[in-house]
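Hi support team,

I submitted a single chain yesterday and got back a structure, but I'm not sure I'm reading the token output correctly. Could someone confirm the output below corresponds to the sequence I sent? I've pasted both exactly as they appear in my results page.

Thanks,
R.
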Amino acid sequence: MSEIAAKAVTTRQKQRLARIVPYLLLQALIVIASLLGLRLLEPRDPDDFAVSEFSLREAGTTRPVTLPDFTASRYSLADPPLYSGSFVSRADGAGTTWSVFLPRFSNGVEVAINGVTILDSRRDPTANRPDRNTPEIAMIPASLLREGSNDISVRLFVWGPLRGFLDTVYVGPDAALRPAFETRTLLFVTLPVVFSAWQSILAVILAIMWLMRRHEPVYGVLAAAMVLGVVQAFITPPVPPAASSRLVGVLLSSAPIESALIVASAVLFLGWRWPRYGVLLFVPGLIVIAGGLIAGPPLPRILFLLLGIPTVGFCLVLMAGIAAYAVFRRQDVASFALGCAATVVLTCWVHDILSVFEIMPNERTFVSRLSYSALLIAIGAGLTWRFARALNQVDSFAGQLVARVREAEERLKASFAREEARARAAALANERTRLMRDLHDGLGGQLISIVALSERGHEGATITDAARAALKDLRLVIDSMDDIGGDLMLALGSWRERAVMQLRPHDIALDWRVATPQGLPLHPELRPWHVIQIVRILDEAVTNAVKHADARHITVTVETRNDGQGPYGVISVADDGRGFALGEDGEAAGASQTARGVRNMRSRARRCGAVLELSTDESGTRVRLQLPQIFPDSDAAGG
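Hi R., thanks for writing in. Yes, this is the structure output for that exact sequence:
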């Protein structure tokens, strides 16, 4: 088993090595391509009009210099370095406009022609940041130009912590200098603004996504990083010696925090947990901010140079390592794109660091902020890829869900059909059982009585009465099978006709009273077996009045009442007979036929959910049947 496990481990290592080697080779190609791109990115200036030989007066001394040139770093503008030189104006034709073109400088310049100032970059707030590489061009008034030699002086303003830098100055016809100026403006001014605007839009989109999906903090972290980047791009620092806002210095020194946020968003985007010690990445940025708030300029610039720039580089290296590890472990599109973008930005950062430390003195072009857009493109591509994959998964899940719902519907339909068939069969069986029981209890008993009377030789009148009772019971069973639509009054109307026919031979009058206009409320749940139980109760009450009470009048009252919880019906049967004795429990005393009849009436009332009240005295007997608001589904509900 140990040999098999060792072989499995070796196989996995080979597979991982096979993944990482091509990735590293690709990153090396990206580095080479980035360096070549930086070479090609550098615009070609009109060398025919270059002015590079100057004399520099700095710190009380004057010496000849050749541009490009670096001056000493300083924090005071009391004695700025002054470059003095000359150029030759040639008469190329009437109306030719000449200009002065400065490709690169730091931090601010003032240009004078023949002692007259024609350009002061400090009036343009966007032109005094080294990371912008903002070019400047100024037309020379024709009245200032002299045929032949002309004087030019460039005063360089430096406010540290980097050394001042002045690139080659170009003086010539505006038509020859303008294309180079416009190219540099497009690359180093317009494109950063476009990318920063794109970054602000992406920040808004990410913030909205985070507000809608609070459980995914990656969107909020990335939105915060984008906001810091936009702030750095669009907030312009005041130009010395103007008063400098500490808050502006803090915001412009927030690049370390932005880089730490990018690393945190990458970790969260790849689905990993942010480690506790990861907060250490934010410490340098917080130190820079604290320095800006407490001391103000130039301390934030110094702290940014000492802490901020190394932190940015470390975060970029960390980003590249995270992306490489993700490709090594997962090998997905998002990790691959993130790794390639991190390599591009890291290469540009190394290029800028070498320029800052003058290891590449002629490469004084800062492109880190411009290359940062590559990282935004990678993040946007990763989020888009993730969103598209989520949509595909949602579509696939929706298709599967629709198919499963259809299958469930088919199963439910089949189940409903089976249950409906079972319910129909059960209802038929219950109705058949009820009908058989009613025929057995009612018609069967009457037929047995008729047979017994015939065998005993009783008179025809007695047999006729028994036959009429059997016929009455048969009609009752048949009438109960009619569909009355929940209207119990229809069944009571049929019962009233039978009751009148029953009472007529005995000279008993039936007084029918409907106390409420609607009679009884409708009951959609009313079933035939409910009707037959109610009708048998009424039959029993009338039969007792005929046989045992010697009554001359029977009053039937039908009404609807409402106790606040809903309407319910009440049917009362009262006679003027002699009544009978009641026991302590409210039942008829003894074991007479009347007592059995009362017990049957109460049993039937319970089976259909009704309440039977019985009262009797010397003036007669009153049976009150209170119907339920909703009839029960089963005749076993009452016991």
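A quick pointer for reading it: DSSP finds 13 helices and 18 strands in the chain. Let us know if anything else looks off.

Best,
Support desk
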